[in-house]
Fold this sequence. Notes:
By secondary structure, this protein is α/β, with parallel strands linked by helices. The protein folds into two domains: about 120-245 and about 260-470, Rossmann fold (3-Layer(aba) Sandwich), CATH 3.40.50; about 475-635, 3-Layer(aba) Sandwich (Rossmann fold), CATH 3.40.50. It is about 35% helix and about 15% strand. The chain has 21 helices and 20 strands. The strands form four sheets. Strands 5-6-14-7-13-12-8-11-9-10 form a ten-stranded mixed sheet, with helices on both faces. The longest helix is centred in the middle third of the chain and has 30 residues, at about 215-245. The protein is elongated, with a radius of gyration of 26 Å. The two termini are about 40 Å apart.
Amino acid sequence: MGKRKPMPSAAARGSKNQPKRPKSAKQGAELPEENPQLSEHDDAEILDTESGAAGTVQLDKKANGSFQGTAQSDEDDMEDEYDAPSGDAPGDTINNGNDCFDETETSRSFHRHVSHIMTNEEVKALMKKNYKFKWEMPAVDIPRSKWVGTGEKVQEACDDHLRDVKVKLRDHWQRTLSDHLNSRMSFFSLCNSYRDIMHCNKKPFYLKSNGPDSSTMDAYLMHALNHVHRTRDVVIRNDAKLRNDTDRDISDDKTYLDQGFTRPKVLFLLPLKSFARRIVKRLIQLSPLPQKDSAMGQFKKEFGESDDEGIPEHSTKPADFDLLFAGDIDDHFLFGVKLTKKSIKLYSNFYSSDIIVASPLALKRKIDGGEHGKEKDFDFLSSIEIVVVDHADVISMQNWEHLEAVFEQLNQLPTKELGTNVMRIRPWYLDQHAQYYRQTILLSSYLTPEINALFNGLCLNYEGKIKMVTEYAGVVPKIQLEVRQVYERFDASSIAEADDARFDYFCNKVYPKIQDLDEGGLLLFVSSYFEYIRISNFLKFKEASFCRIGEATSQQDISRSRLWFFEGKKKILLYSERSHFYHRYKIRGTKHLLIYSLPGRKEFYPELVNMLGESENRKCNVLFSRLDLLKKHSFHGVCDP
């Protein structure tokens, strides 16, 4: 279990010191779930196998003369899946007006998405990344926000969207979610359009001012479950046909183009183990699979049991801080989830899994070959069709480069022979167009330039894009003091030159004024680790009287620096945003606040300014350029640019 103190791992900061890889789970005692509303599904089956092993895909000789990998054909689960591919009665139907939609067929949105074959002209148009957001629609239950998108306008949420959902899933959700189902349909309808989505006004679970809101999480889990079931149904149905007709020639039959290179189709990327526990727990609750066994007990031991585990009774920290870092805060986890007809299995072999749950750090290490120079193995990412990055704002406080590295490895051609029947691989995989079919869902409580760049640069879904535009209320009213806030603008012609322009302005315009002041109490705040190192080296070179608190600073050095700054023994305290994120210190002795670069998390701005409360002559200066307008807008209450 992670410690209560929420320090980031060294590897998450880019250091060579790396935490130990989580051990494989073993079966444990059965424990009931906490949610009384979902008590009928509390004892979830999770059959345990070797954790994270990427073992070799076996080959079985088929009667029709072709080879097929068992990882996708489910030869290891014959007793589970060969009886009824869809899991529904043959006569199950979904009524849609006067039409009758046969449940044994693929859903309309799913079939439309995977059966489309892109032309070279379409590929060239996507590579230009010239996106035009032509339409808008209100964001239900999200104040001051709206959805905008490219292509044709998405239908607003309605009951008709359940036509694309398997009967057993639909019935289970109606029983489980009851009156809450309608609140999930708004975001589910967007997910079901298979477009890339950027939702950067998501209310995180740790902000409980108006009660926890899980509607967005439920919606994308429902979409993922439906996609996996639809994908598996097509494969299993075709497997059954080939067993019954061993002489069938499938070379010219497009209905048998039903697979990717590997089985995993959904990837959840999350920052902390406690977040992964929430996802898996809710995934099991939303799944109608009947058999659920005792291995959930061991999963709780490794990932935590309660949503509020580890929250101190009497805390001086903000409430959102205590909830955010409750439970296991380890940032290294990676495991597979396999769905069969009767069970959910955790820790399944990656190549036989349907869903991969991982942190960017753990997956990056897996891609690089692990800690001991193991052979690189990331072919299981070659056929990912849905990627969900939840709590992207928290990931940005770790190491964003890990996330970018993972995206660069998605949907690449496999490096090894995996045993998949080439005659059944969808043509857009063979054409190396899989990245244009991948749906990416980015979720964050606020928008950052890094999230925006990822959405615009690495999300190339041919279906189009949907993003949320928000009119921010601003956080300036949360400042409890009368403080004159002076914004000093410097010129930066491009993003590539912004860091150097900021540093030059500080060295030539700002620091000479600081040097001339006799009094201390200057809190110098920087938002990035690289700025922290750069300013620290500059102050050392100038032989300035300063101390510092960064994310890698030991607790002993932190206490010493805070004391020196409070007593006036050091005039300047260099303070990083990541350190504030992981500790939320109240720095006493602050008389002058200099924000070298605006914080990414908007709630930090009033917290920093309010640290001037003990000063009689309060000063606050902020350095910014036109490239910082995205952050500045969220502070002062302006729409997204």
